[in-house]
Design goal:
It is a single chain. By secondary structure, the chain is mainly beta. The chain has a single domain, classed as Ribonuclease Inhibitor (Leucine-rich repeat, LRR (right-handed beta-alpha superhelix)). It has one helix and 14 strands; from the N terminus they run E-H-E-E-E-E-E-E-E-E-E-E-E-E-E. The longest helix has 13 residues.
Length: 198
């Protein structure tokens, strides 16, 4: 492969059209242009924080990870995120993102890490989030999220859960007891949240 340049093999491969269109929308809505240096970014897979892989049995690239932590990003998380169906990690922590977490996020069936902590997300978490059965890390702490925790239905692979410092109300669902792999969890800082009883 050599070491001349940053991921040179990407320049010879095409990004899946659906991923390319989705990324262009995200690039606009998340103000990602500030991250593009020296003309980089014409091929999304050359941007720091974007990881791509070739799809099975093809030479077409798919975006598998978006990791933009502490990048001073502004704006909203577009519903276009739901088109990145090969995504395994979405980490956007410690930025200035606002508005709702889009319902389309439940289309990311291969997602293993969802880290949105330290932003200004508000409103309710998509109710069908538990359809993301592969999630190992779910961190939406330190936002302005509200509503109940009924989105915590069944996460058989979840190891870390953090919903601290939001505006959640109601009871911590009994379903938490069925999360067999859960090792770390934090519900603190939600003033109107009732503790799970024995």
């Amino acid at each position: 492969m050599g070491d001349s340049g940053h991921l040179p093999h990407y320049s010879k491969l095409d990004l899946h059209p659906s991923d390319l269109n989705a990324f262009r929308t995200l690039q606009r809505d998340l103000s990602l242009n500030a991250l593009l240096v020296n003309g980089q970014g014409f091929h999304p897979c050359t941007i720091d924080g974007v990881c791509c892989d070739t799809a099975t049995a093809t030479y077409v690239l798919r975006i598998t990870r978006l990791v933009f932590t502490s990048k001073n990003l502004n704006g909203t998380l577009s519903s276009a995120i739901g088109h990145l169906t090969e995504l395994k990690e979405l980490s956007l922590s410690d930025n200035h993102l606002v508005d709702r977490i889009p319902n389309s996020i439940v289309n990311l069936k291969k997602l293993e890490i969802l880290d949105l902590r330290g932003n200004g997300f508000s409103g309710e978490v998509p109710p069908h989030l538990s359809s993301l059965a592969r999630l190992r890390v779910l961190d939406v702490s330190s936002n302005k999220l509200s509503g109940n925790l009924n989105f915590l239905k069944y996460f058989p692979n979840l190891e870390k859960l953090n919903v601290a410092d939001n505006l959640f109300v109601g009871r911590i669902p009994v379903s938490i007891r069925s999360f067999w792999n859960l090792r770390h969890f934090n519900f603190s800082g939600n003033s109107f949240l009732e503790c799970l009883t024995q």
